[in-house]
Amino acid sequence: MNNLIAILATITLLVLTPCNYAQAQKALPQGTAQAGKTAVAAADTGGVNHEAAVDTAGNAVIADSSGVYMAEAADSALAPVESVGFHKMLKTKYIEGSAGFMSFVALALVLGLAFCIERIIYLTLSEINAKKLMTDLESQIMQGDIEGAKATCRDTRGPVASICYQGLSRINEPMEDIERSITSYGTVQAANLEKGCSWITLFIAMAPSLGFLGTVIGMVMAFEQIQQAGDISPTIVAAGMKVALITTIFGLIAALILQVFYNYILSKIEHITSQMEESAITLLDIIMKYKLTK
Fold this sequence. Notes:
Layout: H1 2-27, H2 30-45, H3 50-78, H4 86-96, H5 99-126, H6 130-142, H7 146-155, H8 159-169, H9 175-193, H10 197-229, H11 234-293
Helix pairs in contact: 1-2, 2-3, 5-10, 5-11, 6-7, 6-11, 7-8, 8-9, 8-11, 9-11, 10-11
């Protein structure tokens, strides 16, 4: 009886194995199909019964599924993290640096930029084509149209035209008086060009100083935390050190920004000052020629 049952089980296994093998080849990956082949081979040899073969195939499917899940988890871990925006990062660092100290640094930066923008607008409006102006004045003066030359100076903006107007208003006086008047008024105009620059230099010096002040206060906070805890630990010192370093960084950045604007302003002042000096010398030469031909 036992032999008959074994023969029937073997025949049944041989009949059903091809169908299961074909379905496994279609549905399972390459690794699972290989496991199926192993199960069939074991069944063909008769060394392992049908239940062991099915268990082997099932374990292969589970192992393959686990491998897929692990691969998906690895891909998820390697997925790029969304980058934080610059504005959000700046806001976060501003808060971490203690808003009380950072507000003073930000205030110095804003006020310094306000003075810089005002000077840049003023100097930009003060720049003119000085050579064209002097050419027009020379033609009018040599023709004797002094009032027309004065009207041209009044209608032209900037310190160059103002200096020329002062010289033309004293054209009937001696050359020494004309030169003195032009020199004196040129000094006044140069002072107007540099108005507000002292405030910019003040904020340039204040920004890093406020940052260093935050550094000192942050170090004091760190030592107080060490004293209260009675232990030197990185986690205890980290908060105070972060305040110290962040305030210093922001103070230096504010000073660098203001320094760039200040140097640009100085370059424009030097350019306009050179225009004023060149135009004053040219005007004196024109007036001298006019007096000689008069």
